[in-house]
Write a structure and sequence with these properties.
The chain is an alpha/beta fold and 327 residues long. Helices cover 28% and strands 9% of the residues. The protein has one domain. It contains seven helices and eight strands; from the N terminus they run H-H-H-H-H-E-E-E-H-E-E-E-E-E-H. The strands form two sheets. The protein has a five-stranded mixed β-sheet with strand order 4-1-2-7-8, with helices on one face. It starts with a helix and ends in a 14-residue tail after the last helix.
């Protein structure tokens, strides 16, 4: 009897039991996957923050060596980004030695330099695995030009016009090395660097990362925002520039600088000649990392008050409203 019972014992699972087990596993995976993804993004955001920290330290070491801050964009036809000057302070002397600072980033003399991908200039949260253009290293980071809409040069530079606008009021401005003492708002109250995703370099229908062209000319930052958001993004006459973030050696609103005209995460627009604003934005959820002029880094939410964000962008505006900024 016992032998017969053992022979007839069921071994294994029934189909129903197997389906129940699979369902339980699926539920557990569904519960755990968002947590795993969140943990991975937290690690990527931390690495991005560390990259910006390194840029801040490089800027301060440059200032310690020269008693001046680097230019946000070099003077003359070269018009190179701030990153070239910072390379010796980022353990990238070999790349620095490749650069011809007398010609533009796209000149043949800088073919080797612009092709190097500097790891510190890439945010791991950006899914763009490599440069969309062969031979162009890219950057996710930008220097702060200020809270205005001027993409020109300081009025002290001969031959340059400010189109009736004041000179850029950020800490890293075109064609001018300012003294750190000029940041009278305080180093911890003034942004130096932030971030921006890499574009698709297609120059087709513009995407969130691109810069649009409304075709009209604003007189104030507020008017610039209104014009920027009045356009239809699928209107081919308003398409801007999707060559965003490359090459890292080149400066300008699509490669090396950003503005505190509008809050992070918003649309960017340019109004040639001379008027433009590129917003800070990122692939992080809800905001962007920002390096202060004292070298510290803070995550700033996209919901920050516009008045406070603009105040954070100026070096000597004397503003007192910095709601949402750690002080």
């Amino acid at each position: 009897m016992s032998l017969s019972f053992r022979k007839n014992r069921r071994i294994g699972f029934t189909l129903v039991e197997l389906l129940v087990v699979i369902a339980i596993i699926g539920i557990l995976v569904g519960l755990l996957l968002p947590a795993v993804q969140a943990a991975r993004e937290a690690a990527r955001r931390m690495q991005c923050s560390n990259n910006l920290k390194q840029l801040g330290l490089a800027m301060l070491n440059y200032e310690s060596a020269t008693k001046l801050l680097p230019q946000g964009r070099t003077a003359g036809p070269a018009s190179q980004s701030v990153f070239g000057a910072l390379l010796p302070y980022m353990e990238q002397v070999s790349v620095y030695n490749l650069i011809d600072f007398n010609v533009s980033a796209t000149h043949a003399n800088n073919t080797a330099a612009r092709a190097v991908q500097i790891p510190t200039l890439r945010c791991p949260s950006d899914p763009t695995g490599q440069s969309p253009v062969a031979g162009w290293g890219v950057t996710n980071y930008r220097s702060n030009q200020g809270s205005g809409i001027l993409n020109g040069q300081p009025s002290t530079v001969v031959g340059n016009s400010n189109y009736g606008f004041p000179a850029p009021n950020g800490p890293l401005v075109p064609s001018l090395n300012i003294k750190i003492g000029s940041i009278t708002d305080g180093l911890s109250n003034t942004a130096a660097f932030s971030e921006h995703p890499i574009g698709d370099f297609s120059n087709a229908i513009s995407t969130w990362t691109d810069t649009f062209q409304p075709g009209t000319y604003p007189a104030t930052p507020d008017e610039a925002i209104q014009m920027c958001y009045a356009i239809t993004v699928t209107d081919l006459t308003k398409q801007g520039n999707s060559n965003v973030g490359g090459p890292w050696l080149q400066s300008g609103h699509t490669q090396g600088s950003y503005y505190h005209v509008d809050v992070p995460g918003r649309r960017s627009c340019m109004y040639p000649p001379g008027r433009v604003y590129t917003t800070a934005k990122s692939l992080h959820t809800g905001g962007v990392n920002v390096t202060r002029c004292d070298g510290s880094v803070q995550f700033i939410p996209n919901t920050i008050d516009l008045v406070a964000w603009r105040a954070f962008g100026t070096r000597d505006g004397g503003e007192t409203t910095l709601s949402g900024i750690d002080q």
